[in-house]
Amino acid sequence: MKFETLAIHAGQGPDPAYGAVMSPIYQTSTFAFQDYNQPGPFDYTRSGNPTRKQLEDCLAALEGGKFGYVFATGMAASATLLSMFNAGDHLIIHDDLYGGTYRLLVSVLAPKGMEVEFVNLRDLDALRAAIKPNTKGIWTETPTNPLMNLLDLSAIAEIAKPKGIVTFCDNTFLSPFYQRPLDLGIDIVMHSTTKYINGHSDVVAGAAITNDPELSDKIKMLQNAMGTAQAPFDCFLTMRGVKTLPVRMERHNSNALAIAHWLEAHPKVTQVLHPGLESHPQHELAKRQMSGYGGTFSFRVTDGEVAKHLLTHLKIFVLAESLGGVESLIEQPWTMTHLSMPEDVRRKLTLTEDLIRISVGIEHVDDLIADLEEAIK
């Protein structure tokens, strides 16, 4: 089946109890055993729930995976996956990544004895040089948040697989509609489903999908043991959102690309970081690896004062963290999403005051451009 059909039907047949066409919310903590010492398909919602199972099956199908798991937040997904590793294990992390993931790695996992090394994974020779005998995982984002750098997932997977290193890709920015890392050889793909997959800014949630049965068993055990699973009502909301993912992504994509072209011609904009533009240094990789560009990108203005004026004089764009909702959002990574990074790290990565990240919604593009034009002074 095509993606648009899977988004509506995968894992979501009529409910067997009463034939409900839309998946019902099994808002229950526990399930009756069928007989002495004989549970049914579900026994306790932390371990499994019919509403959650339908969402997990749907997301797995959309990513081209066999096993899907959903979590209470995107960070709960990341924390659960990283709990597969132990003290002494070496993890290679792309050096340009979401600030919350950086904080988890540096402030929580590294003090517990995991060896965390940040590497520019656009440089495949640097990746090869960083691998050690105790290297157990390679963690990627592509496009990266917020600098929109791209990583060659096929090449990274080819380096990692012969060495038995588990590869991860955060696919939040593109959703499976525009990028499928499992098809490119990545072992585990994850999402903050808060973003495009849910798409309505009313849920926080996460997901992980894999094709590997052994990795699946580890994720399932950790999800249950750590209690990080997504609640049934939030699963219902996410499943409702995912049904319109294809049509939303098409509008996000077209709106964002039009705005990126408009910004590129503005005298107060010094750089537009959008992989769909020919000016992006990895535009050819984008065309090879992705089928579209999503709705989130970044740009630089002439200085911090221009950025401040822009952020405080918009009427349609909302100054807020997060991304991927139907509404347009705008933020400054320096003071918002990446504030948890030390200042010297932010400056080294060029996450400076002139950088703006924009999440383009599905409003009419002419209204969005007019809003930006009025605010950039």
TrEMBL record:
Keywords: Lyase, Pyridoxal phosphate. It comes from the Bacteria. Its cofactor is pyridoxal 5'-phosphate. CDD domains: CGS_like. InterPro entries: Cys/Met-Metab_PyrdxlP-dep_enz, Cys_met_metab_PP, PyrdxlP-dep_Trfase, PyrdxlP-dep_Trfase_major, PyrdxlP-dep_Trfase_small. The modification N6-(pyridoxal phosphate)lysine is found at residue 195. GO terms for molecular function: cystathionine gamma-lyase activity; pyridoxal phosphate binding. One of its GO terms (cellular component) is cytoplasm. GO terms for biological process: cysteine biosynthetic process via cystathionine; transsulfuration. Belongs to the trans-sulfuration enzymes family. This is Cystathionine beta-lyase/cystathionine gamma-synthase.
